[in-house]
Give the backbone structure.
Amino acid sequence: MNDSPSASAHNAANQQSLLAAIQHMNGGPGPQAILAALLSSTPDPVIVVDREHRIRLLNSSAEALLGVSGAAALGSPVAELARDGALRELLFALSQGAGQAPAQIATADGSIYVPGAALISGENGEPGGWLLILRDMTRFKRLNRNMAEFLSTVSHDMRTPLTFMKGYLDMLGMIGPLTDRQEEFVDKIGGGVTQMSEMVEKILDAGRLDPHTGSYELAREPADLAEVVHRATQGLLEPARKKGLNLSATIADNLPILNVDRAMLGSAFANLVENAVKYTPEGGTVEVTLGLEQNKIVFRVRDNGYGIPAADCERLFQRNVRIHRPEWKRVKGSGLGLFIVKNVAQRHGGDAWVESAEGLGSTFCLSIPLDGPNLLAESE
């Protein structure tokens, strides 16, 4: 529900406009007929309650959800009719005009609803009741879950043949010497296999971390982020050397040990360093820093590359978004790396962002707050 003053004013204006339009219809159906048609045509449960939170109107979907007939339910307290506990609490909160209702609820039969409420004003402008609507999202949630499960299954199944391909490529040199041309082909095939393997891992991570469909739970453990950053940076030294890049890391002393998902944070750090190495032109510099800023640990990767237009900075961390420019035409990517980085940060209560301007390079940042579950218990 959106209960901000601007949203409430907008909704009130819409209601008045709609009522005025209905009242001024000439030669057409009356307001009661229009209301009946609207309520019967929507598949979502709609409930109208008065100031005492008693039912005044139900559509057929609401009758089915509550298991009552509209006539029998008239005058009954709305919260008393719901047999499902979660639904009962939600209806009571909505009928109170509460702004703290959950974004969605799941009933005992597996149905998922997104709730909403609109204030009904009386003739003198005083509150006359509320219109409650429960948008049935069950079908869409199931479709999302099915798609996520399909992608996860396919990605897992791709791991095995890719592992076989990489293994046999590595063994080709064991069965006899290869010509220079053959070695070139093997290197090309090996690069493609590695690229596909990395893409599979990113698809799996993106699916697990997706805020709407993912179900990943952080595997928290005591971790020295300085060590995690060191490993992520060391793994990119050779690719940086091949491009003639100067890759350096500066890590502050005496950083605290945190209770975090070491593997996921390591993947996020490596993603940011890898991106800087891939997108910085030959001969450039990539500077990695890790330090304390106020009550956060902040990881930064700064490059002196081409920079990113301000309009594109907002989109970069969305799923499947890549910025296209001629200099980056040969750079391969899935558009998932930064999406994963942001979700890893947010699941730790932090955030990820970019500071950039065209022609002035970019600085990608990830912050982890020093509070809540990120802190080790005193007993540890």
User: Anything to note?
Assistant: The first strand starts at residue 46 and ends at 50.
